[in-house]
Queue: 3 jobs
Job 1
Amino acid sequence: MPEPARATSSGPGRVLIAVYGIFALSATARAGVQIVGKFDEAPLAYLLSALAGVVYILATVGLAGRGAGARRLAWGAVGFELVGVLVVGALTVFDTADFPDDTVWSGFGRGYGYVPLVLPLVGLWWLRRTRPR
């Protein structure tokens, strides 16, 4: 009989959820201020910051939830986050003209101490570690 899955919100998962929650708030608030106050200056960057905020919210909800649906949501959001930070990070390094202002994922999360680059790796590791056996 397979061992039941360990809740993603248990133990160190609580810290992971807290970090995701902080990033959800900060990215969403930053994008909101940028979109309302100066959208015409860098619309692509500000929309990408808003997208990052939504992804962080979904990851937080998925990691904090219980059950197969929450786990699928977490896998999808955290996986999308990793792809996003890699793609946007590369684009902002190699094509700076299209990004006159930073996003959360610019330069692989340089403005946030590279936490946006490390966070999905930790998240995917935690999801794998807490999977049903």
Note: The CA atoms of residues 33 and 81 lie 22 Å apart.
Job 2
Amino acid sequence: MKQATFETIAGLLKARSGLMVSADKDYLLRSRLEPVARAHGLSGLDALADRLHALPGGTLADRVIEAMTTNESLFFRDRRPFEHLAGAITRMAAARPPGRALRIWSAAASSGQEAYSIAMVVADLAHILGERRVDILGSDIAAGQIARAREGLYTGFEVQRGLPPAMLDRHFRREGLNWRISGAMRARVTFCVFNLLDDPRPLGCFDIIFCRNVLIYFDAPTKARVLGALRQVIAPDGLLYLGGAETVIGLGDGFVPVADEPGAYAAVPNPAATFPALITAG
């Protein structure tokens, strides 16, 4: 692969999605992007880079970003955050005025397993929540993954990864070799395409945000910008959940670790930092 080809593709990924690709990962570019090039009638990555250079904001660029996005997801991933979530929802519901909905955002929701896991936790708390509504938003940069999430259809392998058998029996029905999550669970979640490098304020304010296993793909300045933006749309007593290999330490003053709860971070009521300069896609 030509150096100019690598730089064009890596530069587009960084600018449009925040994804960092090092020079030693050219094999990853080849394995994921050569099929994209062929699908668009291009001879290879050099031709793909030339087209991207000419049309950096076109449909082809969207396909490249989607192909390079890691879409690993499973139900109740790592389990502990969801156990902690149940207690957090209970505490927040008790602290909120009657009739005020709780809002939860599953950022980088991929094919929907995380958002639906949250929905199943909420369903189990119906006896506590009563009439209080819990709105769940799932978002991802990849339109194809969001389409899958809305459909709510999963393979036998996917439902075996982290989903308790009781949950499978209660919330899914079999369709051939696959399993579809119930209409009641799908109705609890709204999905949309959203780039975490864009300004999230039009999405509204959230009580709880899941942004797990996303920041590991960003460099430190991009992590800080994303965390600063998330702080702008989370309640003063809100909670942020990150992946086990992620942290907020050294990345601003908007969140602090929750004691004895790895991966959970409490919003700082009055962070000193101003709203960060966001990277704008496109």
Note: Residues 80-267 form a domain with the Rossmann fold fold (CATH 3.40.50.150).
Job 3
Amino acid sequence: MIMASRLVYGMARRNVVPPVFSRVLSERRTPHIAIAFTTLIAVVLISTGDISELADTTVLLLLSVFAVVNVTVLVLRRDEVDGPHFHAPSILPVLGAIVSVVLIYDKLADDATVGLRAGLLIALGAALWLVNRVVSGPRKELEA
């Protein structure tokens, strides 16, 4: 949960979610709004289930991220880049994506409510992105 507030803060700084989450306290430089928001989400999640359900939801979301990252590795290979860059053998991201999807399926087969909770969190993230997109307009590319 400590990482979650920093993630929301970073996403706000990159204009992915509303910029209100990037506000920090002047004395301590802590992202107090992002911390309060992620704490509120944690309270809601804990009060609507037990700690094992929260852990299962976290595992499902992380497996989903791993699957997406592995597929992205394969997709990004089509981009032309100048100079040397990291290159993994194709079998590794393919196996990573397959294993992640199998584990996701196994987790959902055990308890479908975990999928519902994860889906609601993804929907919340998509709603925040949409609000930010409507309010701020299209995201500007960052300079290197």
Note: Residues 24 and 59 are 29 Å apart (CA to CA).
